Amino acid sequence: MNEDEHWERQTLRDIALEGVKERRRARRWGLVFKALILIYLFTLLFYSPVLDWLAGDDDGPGRHTAAVDVTGPIMTDSPASAETVIRSLERAFEAPEVAGVILRINSPGGSPVQSGRINDALKRLRESHPDIPVHAVAGDLMTSGAYYIAAGADRIFADKASLVGSIGVIMGGFGFTESLDKLGVERRLYTAGDNKAFLDPFSAEDEDQVAHAQEMLGEIHQQFIDVVRAGRGERLNREREEEIFSGLIWTGERGLALGLVDDLAGPQDVAREVIGAEEIIDYTVQPGLFERITDRLGIALGRELASRLGLGTPQLR
């Protein structure tokens, strides 16, 4: 065997050995990661129940105030979706020893459909549990769709600096027709139905379509107004309804004068002084492990961006 052949064989053997070592290292790291994941899941599943058991919490919490959070945009698949909030409210109303329910709201609004479903659920639960009062308490924001929900409560409370109101409807988008012309792009669109390309952002605005969209927004706005009037009743300042329903936002202090708010108070104050049960227990349904992980990885980014830009469906914002 000459020197070149010996060198080639030695090189191939070194490469093969290095590959074996790399695979072993990868397997070891894989086992480490799997073990860490199992430990994490074990902790989530068993740590809290074990603590509760050790604390001897079998007798229940006693008389208390139930809290349900409505936080962030009110959208399908968001933490403030109708499905999540309604499930949370049902848990709160059906729990033993509940003296009253507080909706802790910190939301700019969102979908009129989701907000309407939560408002309807509040009416149903109030009728089926007449002895359990439910009050809405504003955080930083209780505007638009969030106020739509709050209007279904017995009373509404806010901080003097909370923002409330914004009783209006918005639907937005963009127009790209001039951009296409400058880029030399030809728009090709094929439809069956004169209005199938309704408010297409790449086509020139159609006056009839814009008028139709405005009519829909007006209809949803009137639904919103009717819900607020029904919920607030005589407490609403009727002399200033035009301002109240214009879409303007008010501080909690101004909202009190307008009848949008009943009093200035926080959750703990309402639990202690209004409901009469100082201990607050959170009944908000929490997202599952997989949902939390995927949200943190940014899968919800597109949905959030679209909601912030006001693209697509009408929004109570």
From TrEMBL:
| Regions crossing the membrane | 31-50
- Entry's Pfam families? Peptidase_S49
Q: Can you give the residue ranges of the Peptidase S49 domain?
A: 131-273
An example of a Gene Ontology BP annotation on this entry? proteolysis
**Could you list the residue ranges forming a coiled coil in this record?**
none
Q: Could you tell me which InterPro entries the record lists for this protein?
A: ClpP/crotonase-like_dom_sf, Peptidase_S49, S49_SppA_C
- Mind listing the UniProt keywords for this protein, alphabetically? Hydrolase, Membrane, Protease, Serine protease, Transmembrane, Transmembrane helix
Which Gene3D superfamilies does UniProt cross-reference here? Answer: 2-enoyl-CoA Hydratase, Chain A, domain 1, 6.20.330.10
Give one GO molecular function term.
serine-type peptidase activity
Q: Which family is this sequence assigned to?
A: Belongs to the peptidase S49 family.
Q: This chain belongs to which protein, by name?
A: S49 family peptidase
